[in-house]
Amino acid sequence: MSEQWYDQADTGLAGAGRVTVLSRADVRRCLATIDPVEIVRRTLARHDRGESLLPAEAYLRWENSRGAYTRSIGMPGAVGPHHGMKIINASVSNPAAGLERAGGLGLCFDAETARVTSIMEAGLLSAVRTAAVSAVGVDVTGFGGAGSLAIVGCGAQGRMHAALLSRRLPALRAVSLHDRDPAVAHRLADLLSRDDLEVTVHDKARDAVGAGEIAVFTTTADEGYVTPDWTRPGALLVNVSLGDLADETFLDAAALYVDDLDLVADNPRRPLGRLMRDGLVTRPSDGTAKPIDATLGGLLTGRYRSRGTARPHVVLNPFGMGVLDVALYGAIASQARHLGFGSLVDLG
Ligand SMILES: NC(=O)c1ccc[n+]([C@@H]2O[C@H](COP(=O)([O-])OP(=O)(O)OC[C@H]3O[C@@H](n4cnc5c(N)ncnc54)[C@H](O)[C@@H]3O)[C@@H](O)[C@H]2O)c1
Fold first, then answer.
1. Which protein residue's CA is at the shortest distance from atom 38 of ligand 1?
2. Would you say which domain of life the source belongs to (predicted)?
3. CATH number for the domain harbouring residue 40
4. 221 CB within 6 A, ligand 1
5. By CB atoms within 10 Å of each CB, which of 29, 104, 172, 181 scores lowest?
């Protein structure tokens, strides 16, 4: 059929319309004008009060021509005036090809028409959102006075976590780093270098973990290897990768915190979801097995109480809530409009 035929068969009404496209540089400029940690904090609390929509995520996985784990995740969400979706794709073979492992798009929707109004680079914001959740988590679980921090896995997430937490922890004096690629850990050490901070790169993950009152796991490990005897007594283990902690490290935890119970329970491909599926870990107050103690939003609204630092260790397992990204996309899009950043594309 000809182009003219399609033209005649078309409705003649407005289609997708005009969309603002924000590059990573635009996103970075807008980020400098907002407080992402505060936005994440507010959105976690609103989520706890039932003021958000967070459907299950769509997950597509395949192996690329190198046999590497490759995937796409679609994460829609809505909070207040903000409706949107995160599309975050990744392949573990990307870094060897000089690409970031993960990359994607953030979409904002018009609340009335549901049209896409903005499209923005989402890789940087994904790291910012995830580090902001950890920052709120550190605070609300009672670890804001920590003097030492360990980062295991010093890629995109590890760098953003180190950068953000090292600015937000007033008593921080020592940072321990480990990456299976030592050059990556040394690059992060250079970034953190500051007179009042002792930064050590460890050859062994165990040595880094044992040195941290807070240990953040941002590797791509898919099998748990961090056992309870690795940890500093009373430490907070932030399991961002969802994969580094061995089952007994969850089961032995003095307190177990998550961001969203349904997301964790709906994903038995991740260790904590598998422990829930197998009946070894339950929702709060269930009483039949080891319970999850609280959600971050519930700690923020006062529905739950933190146990503070507790032995042998405390675990925070932030699954990753798309609605937090959507709240950030809304704030970035609004700043971009205000400051005149981005390019307008008319899709017709
Ligand atoms: N929970 C969440 O909300 C959330 C959000 C985004 C990303 N993530 C997860 O965070 C992790 C890191 O993501 P990224 O974008 O920084 O990846 P990345 O590839 O940029 O960095 C990962 C780093 O970990 C290192 N590494 C991998 N396995 C290791 C091991 N066993 N021991 C030591 N170092 C190891 C790699 O060398 C690399 O430097 C991924 O698992 C990702 O799925 C979680």
1. 155
2. Bacteria
3. 3.30.1780.10
4. yes
5. 181
